[in-house]
Amino acid sequence: MPAEIVAAITDIELMKASQIGMKGIAAALAVGLTGLGTGVAEMAIGSAAVGATAENKDIFGLALLFTVIPETIVIFGLVVALLVLFS
Amino acid sequence: MLKPRQMSRLFIAASKDQMEPVIQELYRHGVFHIEEFTDQAKEEYEGFRIGMPLAGASEVSSDLLTIRSLTAAYMVKADDEDPGTRRRTSEIRSLIERDLPVIEKETEGLTTMRSRFETEGKDLEQKIAALKPFAEIPVDLELLRGYESLAVFAGPIAHDVTLEIPHEHFYSPSKAGNFIVIIVPVEYRSQVEKVLGDAMFQQVQVPGETGPASVAISSYQLQIISVTEQIAANTAKLEENRKKYAGFLLACDELLTTDVSKAEAPLRFATTDQSFVAEGWVPVDEVAGLTEAINRVTKEKCYITEIPVDLEHDVVPMEYDNPSFSRPAQLIMDTYSRPRYTEIDPTLIIAFVFPLFFGLILGDVGYGLVLLVLSLVLRRYIKRGDGAQLVNLLTIFAISTIIFGILFSEFLGFKLPWEPLIFSRHMNIGTTHGEGAAIPGLLVMSIWIGILYITLGRLLGIINHARMDHGGHRMKAVLANVGWILLMWGLLSMIWSAFPIPFMPDLTVLPPIIAGLNIAALTGAVMLVLGILFIARDNPTEIVEIPSIISHILSFARLVAVGLSSVAIAMVVNLIAIGMIIEPQLQNFTPVSIIIILVGVLVFIVGHIGNGVLGLIGGGLQSLRLQYVEFFTKFYKGGGIKYNPFGMIRRFTED
Q1: What confidence tens digit (pLDDT) does each residue in B329-374 have?
Q2: Element (H or E) spanning B131, and its range?
Q3: Looking at the domain assignment, is residue A36 inside a domain?
Q4: For residue B174, what are the domain limits?
Q5: Does the beta carbon of B564 lie under 8 angstroms from any beta carbon of chain A?
């Protein structure tokens, strides 16, 4: 096989490998950043919810509901990550 | 099923002389949930007042107070004691008269003595603490005080000092703090004070004891030992009494609590000068028995009737009516909020789906077995109350985890000797070949669960609104729920007609009709528009909630995501412990290998314990959240009143 072709094939393989790597980074960013976003959003809600529940135990269900609302963000991140990795 | 226990509203009226027998009978049956009479009640109760307690209520209350203080002193708790044989109430009544003052006096003596000993011990300890710094000073204590011409400085100091004046000087350095004693003629006092002040000196009082401080300390230590012995003897005596009296005290407590609540029952009734009226709720199947019993004891001098229930205005107490295996789920329901009497009781659905979700997340035979053992051990210690229900829940979780572990073919992250019966969750960790996890399949499965579960929630919402709403709003609310279902399925139909998705209907194959859209896309679009119209008709602001359809369905992806992360951690632990630590050592075995292998085993155990705990918390909370947030928000109202019948379950006494 002529040397140029071998070099070209190696280049393509390298490109493929780096594409896989980029996908990995993209997926990690999608989950990681959305996770941070969710964490920041839940921080304030969570402390308020715990305080409110300590005052009145009956609103536990509602407090939990409020606290987990921002979790949607990380779920979207997860779905994006899975789509990036497996499609 | 899916319904609370059916209740009847019972109305009891009689002359006041029948009040006591009626109360006795109501209490004995323990099925009558009293609807409290308040002064500002309805107009048909004009002229009625809140009743007065029965005679003797205050004496019984004061006896009960004594009993409660005694049970507190002995730290007796009803839940910790085995009832054994029940005592007869007549026997206890006579014993209360005779024994209670004696027990009270004895206990008071013991507790007073105990607090005296404790104060004494504390005093001695304080004295020792004050003496301790002087132990290093080689001078008797009486030589350090009582001078007129000499000034004595004693106390902790930062560092030693040198003085240019005639003085006596003792310095004892130590880690806890340096201590100094300086004696100077009184005229140099202010000069010395300045020098000492610079060295952060703090004056302490010279203790009043005589002789060397160390001798005084050891004498006090001897006294402490004797006080401690006395405290121990006192504790032993209290413990002995506790054993002797616990059963009796609990029986008294139960009996007197019964008496007090009977005596105070009239406070919840409506009365006039000559008569009283009690209203309340009784389960339908208990009405006949209760009516007959009251008629018998009052010789038919009592008017009892059932009042028709007005579901729109009456607040009916709610009692669960579910098979016993769903008891733990009732706890889950009560934590959120008890269902109202008129709405669907979803406990049974939760009882099935909650463990199902948990198993789906954790799904590992190894962890399942560990949880099963844990729950069986806990079962021995926690026998009653909410804790026992949590243990039951743990057992159900464990079984569900084992079943899904078999389906997923997982044992602590390893593969069992068969291929996964549903989707594989084994990732390529530590290997580059192998099939890897069937992530698209798992993801679509979780989405399907979401779609079906949310549809179920909306269907229940339709039923609830049809039952609980009234007037024009009823139809709108029902249609809004239909609208949500139409919207979701319409959207799905449009997506399916545009993209082929594995494990979902492929509607792209249908022939296009207009503008490249096929029948599925068109139907979907119509459903979507209809859905939005129905929703907007009920409440236009709900329109902003429409994206929640997607977020709520995708939220079920956590069933897969949390599970996969737990599998990944388990596999990484296995890889580190076995692949990277133990296996290389087994190949080149040297005596040092034994230690390294032990380290590997430790990593394995700690890693799996950590992952197991994470899996229990994560799996439990995530599946709970799916119930509370994604499911309940579709139909559940909550805020029902607990059915709390007059009477109590007696464990220690009998008539």
Answers
A1: 998 888 888 899 989 999 999 999 999 999 999 999 999 999 999 9
A2: helix B89-131
A3: yes
A4: 130-220
A5: no
